[in-house]
Sequence to fold (335 residues):
Amino acid sequence: MLSPRIQLGLVFAVAGLTLGSLPAAASDGPRKDPQWSTGGDPRACSAPIWPAKVNPTPGPGQGKRIVVIGDSLTRNGREPLTRQLRKEGWTPTIRCFGGKRLDWAIDQAKRAKALNQLPETVVVAIGTNDMRWIDRRTTRARMDRLIEVLGPKRTVFWVDTYASGGDRFTRDKERWFNRQVRQVAAEHDNVHRINWGNWARSNGVRFADALHYTAEGSRTWARRVAEVVTRVAGKGEPGRRRPARGTSRQHTEPPRPAHRTSPEGRFGGPGGAVRRTGRGVRRTWRGGSRDDTPRRGDALARSLRWLYGSTPRCSSHTDVVPPQVVVLHTQVVHR
Fold:
């Protein structure tokens, strides 16, 4: 028979063990995914953290959470991306793992949803490794499946790809994948494409190897993603956003003005304002305007001479047409 003092001590010991086995409350600190495992893979990111409290920093994203799902490009840009998002008021959680593909991204979206850690704004930055190893039909099917898992009520941003042309990720693969991202954005009102590939190329973002950017390139990637996300989803209620008529959900650089005027003209020819029309090019003069619709034979040459100040000459081996113009049959295509 145990003494009352010993019995009381045993009661407190059992109670302490029981309480210690319970999960910590959300208010006690950030929550990590208990199933996250790197498996000793050096390409892995550390476990995603779901902060207990939202970021109090004033900004367009204040009070809003955001999840980013990505591969090694996200891993390399994770720290600057987190800083940029938090600077704008967002509370980010990043799930990334080098070398992963869309099937892994689908599992991550399901896992975050099961943990009640899939907020109203999600960034998808994955696809490079799919284009290196997976056939296109499977890749497109997985893209559709990922959007299905995320659902129509979340605002989804998909960062398109940027290829150096090496390590099985060619420019042709980049163009195909980015077309699929544009199509997905066109098919779903809540999906937005972040134009990274063309933007990065035009801004001279450099590669450290065949797939990954330099440190400065990763910082540029982070700024670009955060800027577009904040501009689109940082205000108003999250969810479905149908753009106004005449606008696009594909976030590219601001469009060029429809009218251009210069003393020397578009390509060094006569001056005047140029406006593109359905039929061709309309050049407006002080005395009126005319359509430069290409015509067959000599009429085509006269039209080109009138527009550019000289008649282009071509041979079977040398193309001396000005580099801004391509003559295809009876059409003039402006690059």
Remarks:
- The CA atoms of residues 196 and 224 lie 8 Å apart.
- The chain has a mean pLDDT of 76.
- Residues 260-334 form one domain.
